[in-house]
Amino acid sequence: MTRRLILQLLILGALWFTVAHLADAERLWAVFRQGRWGWMLAAAGVQTLYFLALTAVYRSAFETVGVPSRLRHLLPIVCASVAVNVATPAAGFGGAALFVDDAARRGQPPGRAAAGMLLALIADLAAFMLVLTVGLVVLFVHRDLRLYEVAAAAALFGVVALLSLVLLAGLWRPQWVRTLLGLVEAAQQRIVRLFPGRQRSAASWAERTALEFREAAAAVMAHPWDFLRTVGVALAAHLIDLAGLYLLIIAFYRPVGLGVLVAGYAMGILFWNISITPQGIGVVEGVMTLVFTSLGIPIERAAVITLAFRGLTFWLPMAVGFSILRRLRSFAAEVDTQTTLWGVRAAAALTALTGVVNVISGITPSLPARMAAIAHLPLVVRHGARAAAVLAGFALLTLALGLWRRKRIAWYLTLLALGASLISHLLKGLDYEEALLAGAAGAVLLSFRPHFQARSDPPSVRRAVSTAATALAFVLAYGTAGFYLLDRHFKTDFGLGAALRQTLLMFTEYADPGLQPVTRFGRDFADSIYVIGAATAAYALLMLLRPVLLRAAPVSAEKDRARRTVEQFGRSSIARLTLLPDKAYYFSPRGSVIAFTVKGRVALALGDPIGPPEDALQAIERFQDHCLHNDWTPALYQTLPDYLSHYRAAGFHVMHIGDEGIVPLVTFSLEGKEGKTVRGAVNRVTRAGHEAVLHEPPIQDGLLEELRQVSDDWLAMMHGAEKGFSLGWFDDDYIRSSPIMAIHAPDGRVVSFANVIPEYRLNEATIDLMRRRKDAPPGTMDFLFVRLLQWAGGRGYTSFNLGLSPLAGVGLHGGAPAAERALHYLYDHLNQFYNFKGLHAFKEKFRPLWSPRYLVYAGVTSLPAVVLAIIRADAGDRFVLDYLQDLWPSRRARAG
């Protein structure tokens, strides 16, 4: 479906350009009809030979690096690569990944195939550079060589040099090749990803492929004549392409000199390779036409020659390539995904563009000739249409954001606004260009209808409808009574019916159909109707585009199902926290569970999917779809390293956010120099008469109340409130059901405690809450953790998880992303606000092994919202207000 949509978009663009330049199009059509069909058919035959020759270039290059291929196998891939490079944003990597994956499916080494693809590209460009040199000389002799043409040629020469260096780097700098192949692998996973069962590990693939690439580069250096043969085949292909262009020139004009032919061809192919638009769309057509015109060919005939040449060398092969992609089932699904994604974004951008055009068109005068053609229409209709166009423009600008988020209700409203735009443009001044743009945008939206599935919040939608209805009823009563009773403030003598019509017109169309207040009170009254209408429309639109809100807690059946799944498959320090009551649950079809909460538009999951490991990738992708359906942005917090390849394959970004400290209990000891600090603290607390007691659940009421006092004292000392989401909180049922390690003073009073929580499938112990009284003796927490470690070792656990050390180890390696380096800066400079380094130093005393934890998020633009969602989930929605309330008394105390 999406392959047809690409063609439909191109057809709509051509249709719009044709209508906007109707006179020019008629002249071009007249020239085309005068063309000689025999020469055109001959040109089509020559272009068929050209594609066979181009395929031979790839075959020769692949044979040079030891990848045997056949023309009949490669020819469909050549055409399909043209379509892939247009349909996806991955530029040249899309087509390259297509060749590499095809070789892999035929059992050939993908690294050698990548080297062969690069060799074919170098040979093709090297051969073209010979043609380009001749073209530049011709333009220079005719004194028609432009600066931008020289710059483009220099850029192409630089590209060839760079590609040659990449090929040589296979021998001299294989690590550079590994980085480049990582880009190809990313494009392959995003564009031509195979079925889940055939997924490859990115790291092992890069290593293996880099080695194969090096072997292929050595083969090229060992057989230079084979490379020269490939360049010769590429030069023959360009000469055939030149012959096809020459036949088209004869078909629509007359024979020209070799210099004119080569110059036009060279500039067209140059900008095909250099242009920032996909495959040079629009740029090649313009440049070739200008060059031919400057060399003496009439502009209409130059344009027809160029369009016919592009039709045979690009547009027709692209259409064939889309057809071939249907049969390449390993590619089709992912190409559809990418074209759908970018198609939806293009539809949103086209809607926003239409909105801007509406606003500009509404505030600029129409052409006098067109206005004369509709002079018979009433003035109120033309003025109302102009106001409607502007209002529809503002609505389209607002709705474009909803379309970007795939909102179904935004899709419906946008179609209504586009319909209103189309009609209003015709009524206000026969502006058929703007009307066609609105119609094209509507056609694109209709084509993408199945992909706008994001729901709005049902109660908010009902509230929007009821608010609009209530506001309409109020304004009708308010405006009708006002105009009827206050008509002395206007030049019009309103009857009851006229007052009702006037109010309805102002509320719905925001038009000014000759209303003339004679007093300031009259102007204020009329303005109040506009204000009420605008406020109502804005509020209703906001409610209609609101994402789905989580209002109800999971039902008992969902809780029981989540608990059973976590107990069977949980294997992390936060597995138990997924069962706390602040979580909602998503269940995959194969039984995995993802615990999450929704803050704003972010669906924030705690940890990885919990379930069968073989279901992890599908669970991640289904959770993405679930979030998309509800207009949520997915993110996963504190994930393990195990599923990073799955997240990246699903299109997520990954950020290192800290390390968990895991103490191997077999080797833990207080002996020796390293244990001196902790050993001294433990000895002091022991001599003071304190002892550690493990209280098994259920915790009795008396002890529970004493633990609550310790917790309250801790919160007051820390100037904070209970956290949530990735931490537990002092809840009676939660604490009562947990084993409690408590430190008792000599008088039996509890001075500190920690609750132990299970990790289920891991033979590892961990804790959640750890709290102490303000007057607890120094070293109490060291004593508490030592006794916990000793107790866990005695119970047969192999390790003890100390929990996350936020930002520890983040951004330290040389290739760290910019976001991780920014987090490292915060770790170094914000210690006065949160004691990151102190927490890490405390855990470091127990000599743990550090295991990385990650934040998985949808993209860079979503990161601020994700960070805010984490803060809201952990600290509560009132965290800013609570912080200010806590800060104000302390400042006032210091001031006093």
Poorly predicted regions: 1-8, 14-22, 89-93, 190-213, 329-337, 887-896
Proportion of beta-strand residues: 5-15%
State the shape.
flat
* Nearest-integer average pLDDT: 76
SS summary, helix count: 32
Structural class: alpha+beta
3D architecture notes:
The chain has 896 residues and is an alpha+beta fold. Helices cover 65% and strands 9% of the residues. The chain has 32 helices and eleven strands. The protein has an eleven-stranded mixed sheet with strand order 1-2-3-4-11-5-10-9-8-7-6, with helices on both faces. Strand 3, helix 23 (616-629) and strand 4 (633-639) form a beta-alpha-beta unit. The longest helix has 35 residues, at 329-363. The protein is flat and about 110 Å long. The N and C termini lie far apart (72 Å). Residues 1-8, 14-22, 89-93, 190-213, 329-337 and 887-896 have low confidence and may be disordered.
List strands and helices in order, with pairings.
Layout: H1 2-20, H2 22-33, H3 37-64, H4 71-87, H5 92-105, H6 110-141, H7 147-172, H8 174-191, H9 202-222, H10 224-252, H11 258-274, H12 283-294, H13 299-327, H14 329-363, H15 368-373, H16 379-404, H17 408-429, H18 432-447, H19 458-485, H20 496-509, H21 520-544, H22 556-569, E1 584-587, E2 593-599, E3 602-606, H23 616-629, E4 633-639, H24 644-649, E5 653-664, H25 676-687, E6 691-695, H26 701-717, H27 732-736, E7 740-744, E8 750-757, E9 764-772, H28 780-794, E10 799-806, H29 818-829, H30 836-844, E11 849-857, H31 863-875, H32 879-895
Parallel strand pairs: 3-4, 9-10
Antiparallel strand pairs: 1-2, 2-3, 4-11, 5-10, 5-11, 6-7, 7-8, 8-9
Helix pairs in contact: 1-14, 1-18, 2-13, 3-4, 3-6, 3-10, 4-5, 4-13, 5-6, 5-8, 6-7, 6-9, 6-10, 6-11, 7-8, 7-9, 7-11, 8-9, 10-13, 11-12, 12-13, 14-16, 14-17, 14-18, 16-17, 17-18, 19-20, 19-21, 20-21, 25-28
